[in-house]
Specification:
The complex is a heterodimer of chains A (about 110) and B (about 110). By secondary structure, chain A is mainly beta. Chain A has no helices and eleven strands. Classes of the chains: A mainly beta (about 110), B mainly beta (about 110). Chains A and B meet through strand 4, strand 5, strand 9 and strand 10 of A and strand 4, strand 5 and strand 10 of B.
Chain lengths: ~110, ~110
């Protein structure tokens, strides 16, 4: 299927566990992003990437790790999950400057 | 510090009337602005955008106005429909390539 897909859609994990959220896009967009959405905070940028092997920290990067070995994939890893990382995570991609970003359906992560 | 601000968390409008959603920004380097619409349990979807070289962009029932001197933009929806009920996010892009989002405004259109 064309587009941007995230997996899993829902995940429950325990505090201290490592968990990886997957993001895959089929457009070969250069730019990819991870956001988290929390009540009262809107969408906050976690990490972003301009191309394969190029990543940058966003507003709230602590506790997260990303990699981008292939243009189409941009996984987000929580190295040791904490309850404060309970959130809805959105992956997005865009082609270039002055273009819109396309978002995945989101992953609802609960850390217990 | 939030660079894109949506100061109204919620807005209620009657069907058929105009909905006006507002957004302010602080970074003068922002030169491209977007509005996204989000339904529960779905990802945000792109609605309309405007470049800083313009002051208005229209797409059907949706119009975005940009006032650069005031660092303010607004989204007008005319006429509003119940299906427009959603959370609307304002976003801005500057010298970087990431979208900077506001906290969103929840719009409720009542019949």
């Amino acid at each position: 299927d064309a587009g941007i897909t995230q997996s899993p859609r829902y995940k429950i994990t325990e505090t201290g566990r490592q968990v990886t959220l997957m993001c895959h896009q089929t457009w070969s967009h250069s730019y990819m992003f991870w956001y988290r959405q929390d009540l009262g905070h809107g969408l906050r940028l976690i990490y972003y990437s301009a191309a394969a092997d190029i990543t940058d920290k966003g507003e709230v990067p602590d506790g997260y790790v990303v990699s981008r070995s292939k243009t189409e994939n941009f996984p987000l890893t929580l190295e040791s999950a904490t309850r404060s990382q309970t959130s809805v995570y959105f992956c997005a991609s865009r082609f270039g400057f002055d273009t819109e970003a396309f978002f995945g359906q989101g992953t609802r992560l609960t850390v217990v | 510090d939030q660079q894109v601000k949506q100061n109204s968390p919620s807005l209620s409008v009657q069907e058929g009337r105009i909905s006006i959603l507002n957004c302010d920004y602080t970074n003068s380097m922002f030169d491209y602005f977007l509005w996204y619409k989000k339904y529960p349990a779905e990802g945000p979807t792109f609605l309309i955008s405007i470049s800083s070289i313009k002051d208005k962009n229209e797409d059907g029932r949706f119009t975005v106005f940009l006032n650069k001197s005031a660092k303010h933009l607004s989204l007008h929806i005319v006429p509003s429909q119940p299906g427009d009920s959603a959370v609307y996010f304002c976003a801005a892009i500057g010298s970087g390539y990431a979208l900077n989002f506001g906290k969103g405004t929840s719009l409720l259109v009542t019949p």
